[in-house]
Specification:
The complex is a heterodimer of chains A (143) and B (515). Chain A has 143 residues and is mainly β. Chain A folds into two domains: 53 residues, no CATH class; 67 residues, OB fold (Dihydrolipoamide Acetyltransferase, E2P), CATH 2.40.50. In chain A, 12% of the residues lie in helices and 30% in strands. Chain A is built from two helices and ten strands; from the N terminus they run αββαββββββββ. In chain A, the strands form three sheets. Chain A has a four-stranded antiparallel β-sheet, with no helix packed on it. In chain A, strands 7-6-4-9 form a four-stranded antiparallel β-sheet, with no helix packed on it. The relative contact order of chain A is 0.15. Chain B has 515 residues and is an alpha/beta fold. In chain B, helix 4 runs parallel beside helix 5 and helix 13 packs parallel to helix 15. Classes of the chains: A mainly beta (143), B alpha/beta (515). Chains A and B meet through strand 2, helix 2 and strand 9 of A and helix 9, helix 14 and helix 17 of B.
Chain lengths: 143, 515
């Protein structure tokens, strides 16, 4: 779906608020979030003022940050799986070769980030993967 | 038939042949794609009858892969000079009907010739891009051609305005010429810009995306910020170019055309536009319209980073560059994109001697992990650098909120603004009353019998004492607290007396901006 085709749900209550805001400016392409309350308010600090304002699409669609899981090995770049050296249940040492991962014309070696047991192999040979794809899962707690 | 007539007839025949481009079939295909042929584009862009074409008879010099047998008219690009709004410009237009507008060494040599010409004559350069990319048969010579163009884009930068118009594909290395120029114009459904296209992305990464969603006009105007002007049609695009050029000088040593000073329209009543409650939004472009001649404001990058507004208007007939926080979007915060957007605009204005007027109303920087991790520190620094470095006349008007680091960044006195004015509604302080009261009176609030009531009381106290323009005025950080109705008059007289400004910066080869 292209940027301009995206439809944004507007509840009746918000429609009125939007109309009101439109009369004070020429807002186009503003984003109204669905939901019970008027959410076009931004707060800047705890206990801070709330400003009435439109949100941009880029802001609304931003990905929220998640703490990295040390038991998951993710691809660091888009690429393809060429060879896998370990199976589920394998005990590996930190630095051991897990996979050959081709990206940007380079045969990259994916190493084990820690001593541990492979719980799952989440990719297979021939996969084309984006950045951040799950490759291996380590068993939790056991090092 | 005399010998001369014969020779002239031959010239006419050769000219006609070369001007056919890729022939009727290829031209019909171009039109079916909704695109105009190269010479038609130039004719529509320039003042009538002003175009003179050069290097019509250029031939490519490729000798491999059967290329030696191919006749490519003008080698796929049209170059020449003409006039826009009566002022000279240099122009080139890639001709997609000839070998897909692919760039070989002679094609590149034509473009660099007109670029050198534009620099020598100190006139604006306009490049119309419509090309499949490098001519693979010419190998590294094609890459050399791109390199020669990029080098000249950089050399010309800040001496003459450089404009890129994307009227077709502009892919791979080719995208870097537009990216190095000052203003990029795109047209819906026609412009396509990307480093690698959908097919490569699919085969290498398995991600499926169509061309329009990857690098169409709207994407570059709304999401990437690579383009500055969005048009629905080629005709609208040419009109935008003419309007932009009407505000710009021909080069960095002359002034833009001085127009007659005219009053703003009555319907933009500055006093009624801005609500006194600092949490209420309004469209800051209407404030600009209430200030500029005839209320004519020409916005740049209208669709990207909407929380800051940039663009041109005239005050007293002179071109002025405006930078204004936009409370209508994201409450007008500063963030990565808005800092980047404003910083580049400031550097353009400074290079071409265009005075800068800043309208300030922002609560601070946008909080968030994504902002911090996207490098808001280094992007924000661009804004500080650009304002500090600029030596053109700089005027700031604080309409309402001016808090924290944002207050410093938005052309404050401390970055050598020439004039700083504030409305009586201005709030200039280290942070908002709520945040400040929570920190300063933490102990009193915690120890109070009713902490919430105490917090409210302290917030009110702080607001009363500090959320106003008079603390800053008492230190001389702002020059005058003014009646909003007098804003245009104050800016006008500031610019009048700044005509001979000499900022006297230390000599250096160049600074090192944070980009």
């Amino acid at each position: 779906m292209s940027e301009n085709e995206k439809t944004v749900p507007v509840t009746p209550n918000e429609e009125e608020v939007l109309k009101e805001l439109h009369t004070i400016g020429e807002a186009q392409d503003a984003v109204v979030l669905p939901g019970p309350s008027f959410q076009k308010k931004m707060r800047f600090s705890e206990g801070g003022l709330e400003y009435k304002t439109f949100l941009t699409r880029k802001f609304v669609e931003r990905k929220s940050w998640q703490a990295p899981d040390p038991y998951k090995v993710l691809s660091h770049i888009p690429g393809s799986v060429i060879e896998i050296f370990v199976k589920a249940g394998a005990k590996v040492k930190k630095g051991e070769k897990l996979m050959i991962y081709e990206a940007m014309k380079m045969m990259n070696v994916v190493h084990a980030p820690m001593d541990g047991v492979i719980k799952e192999v989440n990719a297979k040979v021939g996969d084309h993967l984006p950045k951040g794809a799950l490759l291996f899962t380590f068993r939790k707690g056991k090092k | 038939m005399s010998l001369l007539t014969k020779k002239i007839t031959e010239l006419q025949e050769r000219t006609e042949h070369a001007q056919q481009g890729g022939g009727d079939k290829a031209i019909a295909k171009q039109i079916a794609m909704g695109k105009l042929p190269a010479r038609e584009r130039i004719r529509k862009l320039l003042d009538e009858g002003t175009f003179y074409e050069y290097d019509l008879f250029i031939q490519h010099d490729a000798r491999e892969f059967g290329m030696e047998k191919k006749d490519l008219a003008g080698d796929g690009v049209v170059i020449g000079t003409g006039k826009i709004n009566g002022n000279p410009v240099a122009v080139y237009a890639q001709d997609f009907t000839v070998a897909g507008g692919s760039l070989g060494s002679m094609h590149a040599r034509k473009i660099t010739k007109i670029m050198d010409y534009a620099l020598r004559m100190r006139i604006p350069l306009i490049g119309i891009n419509d090309s499949g990319g490098a001519r693979i048969q010419e190998g590294v010579n094609s890459l050399a051609g791109y390199g020669e163009i990029f080098f000249r884009n950089t050399l010309n930068s800040g001496v003459i305005p450089q404009i890129s118009v994307i009227l077709g594909p502009c892919a791979g290395g080719a995208v870097y010429s537009p990216a190095l120029t000052d203003y990029v114009f795109v047209v819906d459904k026609i412009s396509k810009m990307f480093i690698t296209g959908p097919e490569v992305i699919k085969s290498v990464l398995g991600e499926e995306i169509d061309m329009e969603s990857l690098g169409g006009a709207r994407v570059h105007c709304e999401t990437t910020g690579n383009a500055h002007f969005f048009a629905e049609s080629e005709d609208e695009c040419f009109k935008q170019i003419k309007t932009l050029l009407s505000y710009l000088p021909a080069n960095n040593k002359v002034k833009p055309t001085l127009k007659k000073s005219e009053e703003p329209l009555k319907k933009y009543n500055i006093v009624k536009i801005v609500p006194a409650d600092p949490t209420e939004p309004y469209d800051v472009r209407n404030v600009i319209r209430a200030i500029v001649d005839k209320s004519e404001f020409f916005e740049v990058q209208e669709l990207w980073a909407k929380n800051i507004v940039i663009g041109y208007g005239r005050i007293g007939g002179r071109t002025v560059g405006f930078i204004a926080n936009q409370p209508l979007y994201l409450a007008g915060v500063l963030d990565c994109d808005s800092s980047d957007k404003a910083a580049r605009f400031i550097r353009f204005c400074d290079a071409f001697d265009i005075p800068i007027v800043t309208l300030e109303d922002m609560p601070g920087y946008l909080p968030g992990v994504d902002q911090e991790h996207a490098g808001v520190i280094r992007h924000g620094a661009k804004l500080l650098y650009a304002y500090s470095e600029a030596t053109v006349p700089k005027v700031t008007v604080i309409l309402r909120k001016a808090y924290g680091g944002g207050y410093i960044a938005m052309n404050s006195r401390h970055l050598r603004a020439d004039f700083v004015f504030a409305w009586p509604t201005a709030e200039i302080a280290v942070m908002g009353p709520q945040g400040a009261a929570n920190i300063i009176f933490r102990k009193e609030i915690m120890e109070a019998e009713n902490p919430e009531a105490m917090r409210k009381k302290k917030v009110e106290e702080y607001k009363e004492k500090f959320a106003n323009p008079y603390v800053a005025a008492s230190k001389g950080y702002i020059d005058s607290v003014i009646n909003p109705a007098d804003t245009r008059q104050f800016i006008l007289q500031s610019l009048d007396i700044s005509q001979q400004k000499n900022a006297g910066v230390p000599k250096k080869k160049h600074g090192i901006p944070p980009f």
